Amino acid sequence: MTRDTTLQGVILMLAFCVIAPLLDVGAKLAAENGVPVGQITAARFVVQTALMLPVVLVMRLSLGLSLKGLAYTSLRALLLLVSTFAFVSGIEVMPLADALAIVFVEPFILLILGHFLFGDHVGPRRIAACAVGFIGVLLVIQPSLAAFGLVALWPLATAVLFALYMLVTRAISTWMHPVTMQFHTSWTGLVFCLPVMVLADGSGILPLDPIWPEGWNWLWLFMVGFWAAVSHMCMTYALKFAPSATLAPLHYFEIVTAVILGYLIFDDFPNAMTFAGMAIIVASGLYIIHRERLAARAKRAGPPVMPLPEAP
């Protein structure tokens, strides 16, 4: 009899939701202490590469990479790199929960891109849910836009880039092991980062010009890469143990963790309008997930069987 592993998947997904905001905490602490955003982004790939290599070797996975694999993982790494840069640029001045709530518009963007790029069917109900979700995003952005200016739009850029990242991941996942994919994404991202850091050194371009970290900044930079690697491994194995339809609604628990950490560490607490926007985004996202489940169930069931005409 096949063992039901859904519970393990749920536990790992919840672990992801608790752990993932810790990398954002590390990034925000580093940024607030003067570490350039580009250097924080590069630290993610440096640490993640160092941590993922032993995992790949212990699991005895192939390190080989075809030209096609290199092209796809390079694109995936570039999208992850720029989306990370955009998100860190946002949380440098914005509360964690506000920025993360804006990023959660990603499922709506993914739905629309899936329709245009892959021909996925999107019905009027899901289009309406997307529209409502964007209203929620506006409610979250509005106070931040008034307080911080156009920098509040950085998390929205992250949402678009991360949606594209997920589409590339979707294309690769059919023929590449997820752990291998994560390792190759890490080192190719590092290849993109390092030349930029070298060329920007001494340039005076504040977001890119690296500094020598001091004191706690070493820990904050290590946190970015460490918690990124651990959280993504949790998600990878969660998807191995449980269906994505079961796990997707749990992802919104990450906002709860971000609110708690933002309050405890940075004394940031969302106002009433932001909370209302978060609620709308979550409700709209959950509705889209519900409609996706129904569509998948109908696809598995196949077309309805028409009754045969009665014999004369």
Which sequence of SSEs, written as H and E, runs from N to C? HHHHHHHHHHHH
Beta-strand fraction estimate: under 5%
Summarize the biggest pleated sheet: none
Structural class call reads mainly alpha
Output the number of helix runs: 12
Rg of Cα set? 21 Å
User: Can you tell me the overall shape?
Assistant: globular
**What's the average pLDDT?**
84
Sequence stretches where pLDDT stays below 50 over 5 or more residues: none
Gap between N and C termini, in Å?
49 Å
Q: Would you summarize the structure shown here?
A:
The protein has 312 residues and is an all-alpha fold.
Structure explained in plain terms:
By secondary structure, the protein is mainly α. It has one domain (6-297). The protein is 75% helix and 0% strand. It is built from 12 helices and no strands. The longest helix has 30 residues, at 272-301. The model has no long low-confidence stretch (mean pLDDT 84).
